[in-house]
Amino acid sequence: MALKILLADPSNEWLASTSAYLKQLLYEVEIVNTGKKAQLALYNGEFFAVVLNLDIKNHSGLEVLKFVRTKHVGQRVVVTVENAEMLKSEELSAEKLVKLGASEIMIRPFTMEQLKDVLEGQQSIDDLVKNIPKYTGSVEEVEVAESDANFTRVKIEEFYTGKAILFNVYIQLGPNKYVKILYSGDTFSLDRLNRYKNEKGVKYLYFHNADRRKYIQYSNYLASKIITSDKVSGQAKVKMLKATAEKLIEEVYSVGLKPQAVEESRQLAKNMYELLENQQDLFKVLKEFQEFDPNAYTHSYSVTFFATAIIKQFEWQSKVMIETAAMACLLHDIGKIKMPKELMCKRPEEMTQGELELYKKHPLFADEILSGNLMIGQNIRQIILQHHEYFDGTGFPYGLKGNKVLTISNIISLCDDLVHSMLKDQITPPEALKRIILNERLVKRYNSLILENFMKVFVDPAKVMKNHPLPSNSRMVPKKREAS
Asked: Domain 227-467: which CATH class?
């Protein structure tokens, strides 16, 4: 079933062109050119979203917005304004419009592509599934010649296993050459994918960059369902979160930190917390975690995984604290998008003096990027700004020392160093941590409590409890299952 959009705008020309564009995207569209007609349409029908021009007459845009807030609670409304100056008045400020029920505010002129992004950002997972065109043809493999730049990929074993495919899926034959193997709306076939993996040696599946957001959203949704399941292994859960995080960070680096990316980051952070809370053999999963992919997106997830596990050991830990830290970890290197691409994968010891000076500014670049995003709190910005500060004052960008360095930031700096050590020497997390602990220069970088708590995450809680009583809120104490 197509999602239904109500377009309310005084310009018949804009209504006609926008309606035609959205119908090509498989939306069902109703158009009105007065506020009174908009209210009547809302009274008579249900809409996935309303695109409302505040300049509409015969019941103003504000009147329509107030009507929606009163009569249609929860209705998504994308408000459009003619220029940024309109938002400077007290009556029409962005804050006031959001309080009145605006889900999103768009300033004209904007492109159809931008409107498409905003509407897709409003879609829940249920909306995505409902809007999939049901594919009824025979599943034939189709060769396509298309630029590699248009595709993104995931490891075949990390591809989500839902019942329906939200987008077309391809395998690569060679440079700029692909075969479409699954269609949007097609029924998912795990056996078929296993044949590609085991019989044909396919390592990666590809889909268009434009479908990356759908992949992130659906993978996040599936992860939220399996995190508490005893039937799915800890390693499988970690892999699913990793694949989701990689595509999320790739999306942010590619198209910027859009509202839907922030929302999916929050959901991923919640999923990370649930994994820490429910995975009883977490110590084993952490010990066995191996990821030697130098990809910047993989790095961000690995840092998130270890940092949140350390925080879970502190007495002051909480759900809010862990989710905040996870958000900061996922975005901690976002400032690097302002650096030349050739520096993204270089380590500091490989850089020239000039490159090193620029590299040391990436926490400042991150703060600049995030300062304009109202959805990212000051607490997250501060953590990211200090994520390369060290306890002994040898870090950057400010050379802070001791208690002036936020504990969570110092945790991230430790995990950042740990992950790089794992990658460089192809070693396990415990081996990498041991190398840090045996290096006097490195040990001075971190608050000693952080190192102590990090060692705990690799220890079997049952063995610790035999000789070392711990606080009741310690993550090292296995949860007691309620009697059935």
From this structure: mainly alpha
